[in-house]
Amino acid sequence: MINEVLRAHAAEVEKNERPAPEGLAALRENGVFALRTPQAHGGAWAGAETIAHRLAELGRACPSSAWVAGTCVTSKTLAGGVFDRAGKPEFFADPDALFCGSGVPGARGERVPEGVRVTGRWPNVSGCEDAEWAGLAVMIDDAFSFALVPTAELVVERTWTAAGMRGTGSHTLIADDVLVPAERIAGAAPFTPNDMMLFAITVLGPVVGAARGALDAVTAMFASDRKPFMTAYTRMGESAGARHWLAEASYLVDRAEHAMLAVAREADSAELSPVDVPRLRKVLAEAGQDCRTAVERMLDLHGASGFDRANPLQRFWRDVAVGSRHPHLNPYLAVENLGTALAG
């Protein structure tokens, strides 16, 4: 089972600051990297709800590995939209290849007869040390463009030092006068509202999974002979307060997951309008906040030992704290943008 492999190597992933080879192999063999490879090229091109389910389940075992899988979904979605009309592109020859990328235009390109020469840098590119292809935003003649570049032609600068999601390997990619053939770079249209929701779900899915993984650890604690310290209780479940906290944490994780899936179903079933975006972003941002609140309740239950480096609970806590603060889940901007939309 894929989660057994990911769980067995989760500590190694964090220590080495990149996904474990065994985990990457399991993700590949189980079709996770093909979730957004076009069907014409042997992939699944799965919908948002399927992707949300898969990433949340993977995040339950290893949030960093799930995050890298989500980045692959985003990059392949963009690649499919921009380049899939170009016959049988080489980058889809292997439907299970891992993609990474950045939608932030970190470079400028200069047109030459053979294509475009690109120089620049892109920070926070998750999975860049293990991906085969990088989808990168580039400005060419002041126009937003999208390039696909083999990562072997780029330099990785190890800059990712965040406290959580440490195993995502979200380092900086650097291009130094790299030639990108014309067939692998093109102007990119603005993201559709449906794609914007999918991209946010690829961030929230691993966070919901991490909160669920933390809940697994705390539920196991309740099933053990552990008791609240400095009390007469003989086990955790005897405490009404502890039961209350457990119920509240479980409810918040469930609510976050249900909210995420509801947004995914809406994105799958209809073409979203621009005015739908701030409403749904608010839903997703609140789901991220629910995950944070739930994990705080769990740490209250576990006490200071939950922060021991050998305890997986502290890793889930850090992963939720960092992942839920991605710009896609920014709560104060979600409120601001929804208010602006409602006020007309």
Gist of the model:
With 344 residues, the protein is α+β, with helices and mostly antiparallel strands. 49% of the residues lie in helices and 16% in strands.
What does this structure look like?
The protein is an alpha+beta fold and 344 residues long. Helix content is 49%, strand content 16%. It has a four-stranded mixed sheet with strand order 1-4-5-8, with helices on one face. Helix 4 packs parallel to helix 6, helix 6 packs antiparallel against helix 7 and helix 6 packs parallel to helix 8. The chain is globular. The model has no long low-confidence stretch (mean pLDDT 96).
Supply database-style keywords.
alpha+beta, 16% strand, 344 residues, 49% helix, four-stranded antiparallel β-sheet, 8 strands, globular, single chain, 10 helices
